[in-house]
Amino acid sequence: TLFPYTTLFRSGDVAPYAAPVTPTVLASGATVPVPDATIRIEARWDPAGPTVDLTGLLLGADGRVGGDGDVVLYNRPRHASGAVRLHTGASRLQVELPAVPAEVATVALAVSVEVGTLDAVKGLHLLVQELGNEPMLRFDPPDTTGLSALVLGELYRRGAGWKFRAVGQGW
Questions:
Q1: What CA–CA distance (Å, rounded) separates 145 from 170?
Q2: What tens digit of pLDDT does each residue of 69-127 get?
Q3: pLDDT single digits (tens) 5-36
Q4: How many C-beta atoms lie closer than 10 Å to residue 24's C-beta?
Q5: Are 42 and 126 within 8 A, CB to CB?
Q6: Partner of 140 for a Cys bridge, out of 56, 61, 113, 125, CB 3.0 to 4.6 A?
Q7: How far is CA 41 from CA 16, 66, 89, in A?
């Protein structure tokens, strides 16, 4: 007989059961250190609603993009450095933190709708994970009423490392 929380492999070996990891749910403004690794930030929503466009923004210390090349979006899905890529089919931004240019202080993920507002987008949330691992963080923006665009979250430099901030602010 098998013990609870075990899985039987074809070879007959018994391995401990690994329960799925539940991501830490963040409130607006919460910050969490992230590893200096490749990070995926994925936006998810109910596909029955309107299409949501994702945009990655590489910001300098002044909080501004240096130029058009620092905006990663559907028709320009890769930053020139290769450190930030948008996977539109999967609705995710992949950021290789060790390769982010030194002049970039923050990488933000924004979402928008072409027509109308985000009110019609149900179940909008953000997942953050280190590449190859289960999601470690989740953020559900508290209110999208009347907004057509929203910064969901951002990775930013803090000392020698990186942190993630749940933002949830829009226009």
A1: 10
A2: 999 998 899 999 999 999 867 689 999 999 999 999 999 999 999 888 999 999 999 99
A3: 434 444 445 545 555 679 999 999 999 999 99
A4: 13
A5: yes
A6: 125
A7: 30, 22, 13
